[in-house]
């Protein structure tokens, strides 16, 4: 590091130590690096890569030589030539890229500096992983075509002169991939690792086992791959049908130990540590397809073709041989994965069988435990002792906190950020991966226009707003927050293309959450850089989502004027939103939204952002009904569940806005196990011709139509006239997602009170994945005409 940049580097780091980064914002508008570097200063002029450019490594350093080879490998296909590698002593060229290891404590073990001048590029770091990150930044400075796998003709490879000084915010920056629900081959895993490296992520959490398939060869237990890796092939993720007689287990796959070694090396060449996850004590039914003796019931099971709802079968905690079995597996795992951590799952353990199992009950008595929560803690602590004895550190999902944490265990928080807060307070290390921000199996856009996701919605902007360190921790406790990761569960992700789509571009937002300084994160600036990365994805032939182009239609009811003010929004920068009010699809001849407008009669609003006259992310649609007896009083016999009271709370059912097929859209109210049961008071007796009520059907999210709908009307609240509609039994079983309108002609001149009951089926029916568990009923919009 020359003196000038050394001074700048130290200066900036001192500023951050004192709090906010308040260096003047660099003029870096043409620098599109993601994650945003710590400091960027753009200079005049540019460097041009050409056939004479040489890579210079300082001294005969084999680690740096490896980095030089890596850069060559990354450039070779698109530029069409190989750069000579020379040592510092020999250097003769005057157009060069130089790597240099320096002794500079401020850069940390992952930081680097990158200086581009008109005839030279210098990357300096304390360790070769810093050089590697410098190379990742360097690649992103070239035109996006540099990422093409084939020769790019007539392309000038210019990059701007600049200085970058960079280092990460968190030491743990991870991505997870579930290869149990669907299997992903070796080549895709390498591609996934390449993407992690490109965005400076350094941990790959590999979810190798679950109810739907065991994916790693264990020499001592060959049946795990012979039997437990294979399940019945269902085209769709079929959640509620068990295996039928005669169905063959034809879907699956696993990694041999040779594959694992190859991938571990591939990852380590990219400075990525792999964390293997072996689930226990639950999410293990696939094991019992091969080794039933280690479960409480001892029954031979089929590997589940679907469902993520925890299977009740669980490792028997009363049996010592269960622990020997697991320890033998972990012993092989530990010799395959050189990283410090092994993840033991620990999530969603249904302990019903432990309650009944004589051996588990005996263990509870003999060990002086109070209950099955204590038994889970005993189980995890016993495995923890084993892991410590083989010099590995344990990670578990936040359920491992139940009954007391095992010493030294790192907690991976998925249920909530609060769990991480609690664990950090207890002096345990924490990796944040809350469902609210980090579940990349969730939708990234309005589900009506998105490919199938798991229930919730996490947009690009949502993930960008994530701060892994919760407020209220002391400095010492905050140091326990190692970082964050996003998870890709694959119940609904059955191909590599879909996996790419689910993580891109959301992973880019995650990378800034964990790498960049909070003060350097600006949404508009990020989005403008993401646009450039779409070009990189195109060059690489990657599949990605444009979910953040979805349009939101936001109606607000004005009760005095009995009309709506409607605004249209999107996560895009200055979006050009086309819309119609007559039910037709918007095109380039439609109106362009500029400011909120008034709607005073029943209207179907349709809106979209267009490219080449086609909607980029579907056409959003909302039907609103001003003046349909809105704003009346509703009395609930059973309250909706708090999470699903809708945006307009007690007015949601009569706010004049109909729910879509998406239960999270702010229009629906959800009731669990109990009936939908409300009274509406119109204030005075009035003529009513028709009443309609909408209910949602979405079996895979445990939302069922009412068995019957009873609409009763009364002039005085004493005498009621009943209208009962029974739901068609075929509709009750339908697994498609739809809204059913129950329409009732009333034709009465004198009605004040309306009583509506939608009868909840109570519990999920047999053969449904949640059989016996409480069922949901979702209602929105009661239209009274
Ligand atoms: C919960 S997160 C699970 C997974 C599912 C996921 C679906 C966790 C520890 N368990 O088994 O795949 O939800 O979003």
Largest sheet: 8 strands, parallel, barrel
**What fraction of the residues are assigned to beta strands by DSSP?**
25-35%
* Rg: 30 Å
> Which overall shape is indicated by the principal axes computed on the Cα atoms?
globular
* Alpha plus pi helix count: 18
Uncertain parts: 1-27
**Order of strands across the main sheet:** 8-9-14-15-16-17-18-19
Ligand set: ligand TNX
Question: Percent of residues in helical segments?
Answer: 10-25%
**Secondary-structure content class:** alpha/beta
Mean of all residue-level pLDDT scores: 91
Q: Span between N and C termini?
A: 77 Å
The count of DSSP E runs of length 2 or more, i.e. the number of strands, is 34
Description:
- By secondary structure, this protein is an alpha/beta fold.
- It contains 18 helices and 34 strands.
- The strands form seven sheets. The protein has an eight-stranded parallel β-barrel, surrounded by six helices. A seven-stranded mixed beta sheet has the order 1-7-5-6-4-2-3, sandwiched between helices.
- Helix 2 (62-79) packs parallel to helix 3 (128-141).
- The chain is globular.
- The protein starts with a helix and ends with a strand.
- Bound molecules: ligand TNX.
- Ligand TNX binds at residues 308, 347-348, 397, 414, 439, 441, 454, 489, 491.
